[in-house]
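Appendix B. Chain record.
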Amino acid sequence: MILNASDLGWDESSGADTFSPLDQLDSSSTYEVPPLTVWGVALCVSGTLIATENAVVVTTILATPSLRAPVFLLLASLGLADLLAGVALILHFLFLFCVEPSDWSELLTSGLLVTSLTASLCSLMGVALDRYLSLSHALTYGSSQSRHRAAILLLLVWLGACFIGAGPAMGWHCLGQPNSCSVARPLTRTYLSLLCGGFLVVVMVTLQLYAGICRVARRHAHAIATQKHFLPTNHSYASKHSSGRGFSRLIVILSVFVGCWMPFSLWGLLGDASSPPLYTYATLVPAAGSSLLNPILYSLRNKDIRKVLLQACCPHRCSQNPQIHYPVDV
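Structure tokens predicted for this chain:
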């Protein structure tokens, strides 16, 4: 699932396979580290940013005993998955520009990136499920039993993600058979098609969950308006403003979610080894960029997490209002 940025050229007339650093290793006994490129700098910087911000989120949640609700377990899982994605990008940079590439390095970075992206996408679906259950079962959701179920669900998610990510290392790769390669070497076309098909299923289920959230929220709003003897058209300005702001946030979250995951999921199904590598980069970068945006859209928007971070950065300021409690806002 790793490509070399210096190999973006291709021969459309002959349909020749893209040049690989491994071919150079076969024809030469010495290896020269390629010069650092803009792509390499962007790869290292983005991987470092992704790993750093998600490490802050994961550390904050794990180090705070009060953040043990199901939603925080899901956010910690999401942060850990995105943290691994950042580590995979940093390793890819090291293998490209610092050390001599090999088969095991490609398999390692590919497996780690597949594992992290799979766990990240499933954690996003879990966050949507958490929002739906917290609205439809507001009185019982959040109990210790719900936390245990969330922990079991996350354990299954990570076991499945690790099993899927271990596919290339267990022999499901195309290093010995170039004709079976997909748009993301060293993954085979069959493997990537199954992976992207699963990604599309998770995306569709997540969108259905958010549609259910909208329906439940509308029913709750109508019930509240009926109890207060107000028609829906006579809501106060504050209520309208709050509803509009929440709807806008939902639109932003769904737009980023679909925009990050849909392109590569479709391209992995439609492309093959002879497809231009530039298209693979154009679709894989948004999927990896999702790991950079997830902490901002989900974890850092939560008022409880922001309160803990603010207390860690400015303890004197927070000590003036020790009784403030913020509800979960994810």
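Further analysis of this model is presented in Appendix C.
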